[in-house]
Amino acid sequence: MSVHPGWPEKLGPLRVSAGVVTLRPIRLRDASTWSRLRIRDREHLEPWEPTGESPWDARHHVTVWPSLCGSLRSEARKGRILPLVIELDGNYCGQITIGNIVRGALCSAWVGYWVASDVTGGGVATAAVALTLDHAFSRVGLHRVEATVRPENSSSRAVLHNAGFREEGLLRRYLDVDGQWRDHVLVGMTVEEIPITVVDRLVRAGRASWA
Description:
Elements lengths: L10 E6 L2 E7 L5 H10 L1 H4 L10 H4 L5 H13 L4 E7 L2 E12 L5 E8 L8 H14 L6 E6 L4 H10 L2 E12 L2 E11 L7 H7 L4 E2 L1
Parallel strand pairs: 5-6
Antiparallel strand pairs: 1-2, 1-9, 2-3, 3-4, 4-5, 6-8, 7-8
């Protein structure tokens, strides 16, 4: 039985310049699309993601997905994580995750995401982050959400800024990424900082509209 508030649910739709963005729980049948996009976009993704213990293509082979999907869905049912697929016009184009959910006095989590190279720059990631934050602060019941991003990753920093995150500091040699220990910028947001929803702020700013 699921003990995770807000899981499994579908979020959106939200219209941006690239099309209509929706979020849904990951599925076993996502295997081939997940593998194809991750392998195709290695050059686009690998510089920003934690260093793996095996080669990129091996970690993203279609046969890896069933166990990964099963593990993530099991953790979701236990209330520890919220793994979602990003769809653009009904097509899988990335993933976004609320991870390390902690209840009690902390009541927080982190958010991480990736989108396919051919949909970057069209507002997809920003829409996905906004929908996820609103879900995290409402149905999931969190108080704080944070994220980390490499200082050089200007595109992702813009996404987080447009979603309303504030920068809190620099984490020196925080994470092993692409074979080296890399600095990361820490950003955060709490529910008190959102007098209206994150999506409503995007809509008012002209960056999105309800589909």
